[in-house]
Amino acid sequence: MSEPPVTVMVVDDHPMWRDGVARDLGERGFEVRATAGDAASALRIAQAVTPDVVLMDLNLGDTSGVQATLQITQEIPGTRVLVLSASGEHADVLEAVKAGASGYLVKSASAEELVDAVRRTAAGDAVFTAGLAGLVLGEYRRMAITPDSEHQAPQLTERETEVLRLVAKGMTARQIATKLVISHRTVENHVQSTLRKLQLHNRVELARYAIEHGLDQDGDPDPEDS
Known about the structure:
This protein is an alpha/beta fold. It is built from 10 helices and 8 strands.
């Protein structure tokens, strides 16, 4: 039995661009549940159709897509936002990510890059146009350098650290389960435990934490269950 299609909503204030993206995604197997041209209707419609992914433009006339992103990610937990914007400015990228966006793609991306980004976003990955990931991660590393004597780093088990390292490498839960020779459920349990300990909310934030602490550059862990 085939998996259900990824459901998508497209938010952009340019009707021709909005309809074109919606049409392209529909032709490539996605279920486009709705489109919207402004921030207010974006939130209202997203609440009604609850798509897996909202493709969000940042320039929505009087209201920024950043605000719409914040509202959608806060009020619709099962929906992820992938920004699709003409701007590649550092400040715009950081604002969107801090508002809860799972990724950021510039409009010059190819159709294949867009399709891949939407699928990966739906799967829980953090997706960025080449070059922008470095900007975001550099900012989070810079923030992580500032010492905080009042808060000691939480203690993770060896297995939690192994799973965290593989999350930072961009692996899915099923890929991690295969690599570590443990069940998919066990991986998810470790992820949830780590999220609680680090006071994070999702795998995107978990990946940021791991990269900030250099875990994405460590050697591969030994696949030995604990």
